[in-house]
Every structure is written in C-alpha cells, then in structure tokens.
C-alpha cells in the first residue's frame, strides 16, 4: 500500500531543491530568450541599467526570487527576470528534423514536450543530480512549519471539518 506524500513534505522537498539548486547556477552560462531590461535590483520598479536584446549571452551570478543576477560579455551586471533566461550554452541551430519532431509533439500532445516550472527553469539533469542538501536551510524551513494548535484554531475559526478521502487506486 502506498502512502501519499503530505503537502507539507512535498513543499519542503521542493523548497529544499530550490535552495540547493540556486547555488548550482552561479557562474553558469545563459542566454536571453527575449529582450529584457537589465535592472539595478531584483525588483520590477528598480532602475533600468540597460536594454538587452534577445540572444544576449550572459553569465549567471546568482538568483533571488523570480530574478537572476547576470553579467554580460561586455561587463554590465544587474538583474533580469528568471523566465527571460535560458540557462546553459546557447542551443544549436534548429534542424528540420528537430522542428518537425516538436510540431509532431504539439499535434499529438498539445505541447512541445518541454516544461518550465518557475524556480527550476534552466536546471539540467546534472545540476539536479549533483546538488547537495543544505541542512542549515532545512532547519530554517522548519521554523515555518505550522503548529497543530494553530492549524486547529484556523480550521475552527473558518468552520472547517475533517473529511475522509479514499485513496486513489492506480
């Protein structure tokens, strides 16, 4: 009998992976997938230092939330949005075979077989494989764990009740 993973444990696992993976990105090459403003700070309303065109080559210096700190080939450093950067070496030029394969994937499944998840976008299999846990960060996460008494108080104040849910069978 399999036991489902609690939402807390799943969230904790994801947060641990994200904390570990952020350190794996330092000094990684990257490329802008769309033109972007280079910001002085990792905030939407921060001063724009430069306007960077699509396909600009970058070196990733670090991450903070949905932002990546980068340095351009000509030495400009600042922050760009995470979703505007492809981590890794620039892709090879598209081949007809690859393009047809992607179109086939869209027709069959409605996707290109690629997925981007905020926070882990751009991580390679090697980044994930070579990541190491950070026990100090795990201890810090424990401070956010809800206490049973607080959960009970919250549920009672909103008139929530316990409901048994049957385990889904494959």
Order of helices and strands: HEEEEEEEHHHH
Q: Helix content range of the residues, please?
A: 25-40%
**Poorly predicted residue ranges:** 18-23, 105-113
Structural class: alpha+beta
Number of helices: 5
Concise structural overview:
This protein has about 170 residues and is α+β, with helices and mostly antiparallel strands. The chain is built from 5 helices and 7 strands; from the N terminus they run H-E-E-E-E-E-E-E-H-H-H-H. Mean pLDDT is about 75; it is low at about 20-25 and about 105-115.
Give a structural overview.
By secondary structure, this protein is α+β, with helices and mostly antiparallel strands. It folds into 3 domains: 1-25 and 123-161, no CATH class; 26-91, SH3 type barrels (Roll); 92-119, no CATH class. The chain has helices at 7-24, 96-109, 125-129, 135-142, 148-157; strands at residues 28-32, 36-39, 48-52, 57-64, 67-72, 77-81, 85-87. Strands 6-5-4-1-7 form a 5-stranded antiparallel sheet. Strands 2-3 form a two-stranded antiparallel sheet. Strand 4 (57-64) and strand 5 (67-72) form a beta hairpin. Residues 18-23 and 105-113 have low confidence and may be disordered.
Which helices and strands, and how do they pair?
Elements: H1 7-24, E1 28-32, E2 36-39, E3 48-52, E4 57-64, E5 67-72, E6 77-81, E7 85-87, H2 96-109, H3 125-129, H4 135-142, H5 148-157
Antiparallel strand pairs: 1-4, 1-7, 2-3, 4-5, 5-6
């Amino acid at each position: 009998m399999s036991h489902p993973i609690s939402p807390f444990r799943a969230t904790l696992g994801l947060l641990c992976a994200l904390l570990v993976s952020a350190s794996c990105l330092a000094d990684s090459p990257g490329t802008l997938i769309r033109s972007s403003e280079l910001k002085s700070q990792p905030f939407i309303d921060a001063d724009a230092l430069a306007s960077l065109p699509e396909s600009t080559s970058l070196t990733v210096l670090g991450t903070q939330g949905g932002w990546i700190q980068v340095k351009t080939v000509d030495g400009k450093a600042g922050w760009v949005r995470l979703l505007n950067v492809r981590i890794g070496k620039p892709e090879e030029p598209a081949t007809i075979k690859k393009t047809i394969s992607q179109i086939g994937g869209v027709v069959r499944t409605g996707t290109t077989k690629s997925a981007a998840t905020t926070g882990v976008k751009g991580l390679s299999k090697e980044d994930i494989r070579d990541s190491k846990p950070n026990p100090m960060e795990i201890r810090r996460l424990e401070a956010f764990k809800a206490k049973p008494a607080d959960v009970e108080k919250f549920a009672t104040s909103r008139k929530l009740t316990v409901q048994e849910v049957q385990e889904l069978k494959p």
